[in-house]
Structures are given as C-alpha cells and as structure tokens.
Amino acid sequence: MIDLPQGVSGFFRPYGYEEKQKVLRQFTGGNEYFICIIPALAQVHATTVLKAFSIFKKWQKSSMQLVLLAPGTTDTETLVNNFSLYKYKNEVMIISGKQEEISAALIAAAYACVLLPAQNNIEVAVLYPLKCGVPLITADNEYAKAVYGDAVSYTALEAFSLSQHMIELYRNETLKQNLQEKGLALTQKNNWETSCQLFWDSIVA
C-alpha cells in the first residue's frame, strides 16, 4: 500500500510582501496579527487563546491583533463566554472560515498561527500555515512530534505556556525564520497534484 501525502489546496501558499500588506489593510487596518484556527470540536480552547493573547499584549504593548478562524461560528458570545467584557475585544476579529480562499489569505499573511486541536487529534489544518511558510504553535503531544518534528513550536494547553511561545516568536526572528523554512520543507509534497500522481503511479506500476 502506498503512503499518499495529504493533499492541500493551492490557495495555501507563501505570500510576498505586497500580498501580505493587501490582506493586512483589508482585514486589520494594516496591523500584524496572530491567527488561531479553531476546529469545530476544539472551541473550548478559544478562551485559552484569548487569555494567552492578553498576556502577550501586557508584555508587548503593540498594535498586534488576533484573528480567530472558526469554521463553526461568527457569534463571539457562542465561541467565548462574556466576550463583550474582554479587555482587548477591539483587537480580535472572528472569521467564519467557510471560504477557503479567504481563509488561506488570512493564514498566509499572519505573523504566526496557533492551532490547538481537540484532545490529541491531528488536524489537517495544521498543514495550512506550514504550506504558507507561517510559523505554527500547536499542542504538545507525542503523535504531533512524530509527524511534524521540529517544524512547529509545541505548547501545553494552557494560557501562560501559549503566551510564552507567542512572545518568543515575536522577539526571536531566527526562530521564526527556522520554523518558516522547516514548515515549507516538510509540506513540499502536500498538494493534490503530487497525491494524484503518486496514486496514479501506484495503479499503473
């Protein structure tokens, strides 16, 4: 049996400077942002991400914003209890994530990405930021480490740990660049063309 790489849409690709600036102007008023992909079964982690973002903002009083990419909802109160009371609510945007091209653009233009899966699940969405050359912070578990190795940054599922990884990516340009390069190298074969060709080759071999 052939081991086929997971196919990923061509929308997920590295963006150049001008492309990134266009996305920033359109969605965040030209400000840099962290993006958090929130799988449908992992919405419980949205509060953890907001708490981590608060710690980051207290450390770095910058214009950095947060985009929550949540395929299941655009209702802030459904996603996060008492969101209206959140101190930095004006610097958080929630996008439904239903339009793949928009999701891809938001991920490709992000400063870094956070994805905390449900339990120890491995989400296909982990590949999206890696294909875009965007540093990824994800949950620390043995299976993820076996699959992604040192191409991603691993955090415990709690706010302080996550905030420290966000802070480290912000102040350590070398780490950021290393994760970008390793993510792109790891996902080089993750596209539908390669998967289909390998599948076809296995049939005619």
Tell me what you see in this structure.
With 205 residues, the chain is of the alpha/beta class. It contains 9 helices and 6 strands; from the N terminus they run H-E-H-E-H-E-H-E-H-E-H-E-H-H-H. A 6-stranded parallel β-sheet has the order 3-2-1-4-5-6, with helices on both faces. The chain is globular, with a radius of gyration of 17 Å.
Helix % is 40-55%
Query: What is the overall pLDDT average?
Result: 84
- Element order, helices and strands? HEHEHEHEHEHEHHH
| Distance between the amino and carboxyl termini | 12 Å
Radius of gyration: 17 Å
Task: Characterize the overall form.
Answer: globular
Strand proportion: 5-15%
Residue stretches low in confidence (pLDDT < 50, at least 5 long) are: 1-5, 190-204
Tally of DSSP helical segments: 9
- Given the helix and strand composition, which structural class is it? alpha/beta
* Total count of strands: 6
Largest sheet: 6 strands, parallel
Q: For the largest beta sheet, what order do the strands appear in spatially? A: 3-2-1-4-5-6
Secondary-structure blueprint:
Blueprint: H1 17-28, E1 33-37, H2 46-59, E2 65-69, H3 76-79, E3 92-95, H4 100-108, E4 112-115, H5 127-132, E5 136-139, H6 142-148, E6 153-155, H7 159-171, H8 173-186, H9 192-204
Parallel strand pairs: 1-2, 1-4, 2-3, 4-5, 5-6
Helix pairs in contact: 2-7
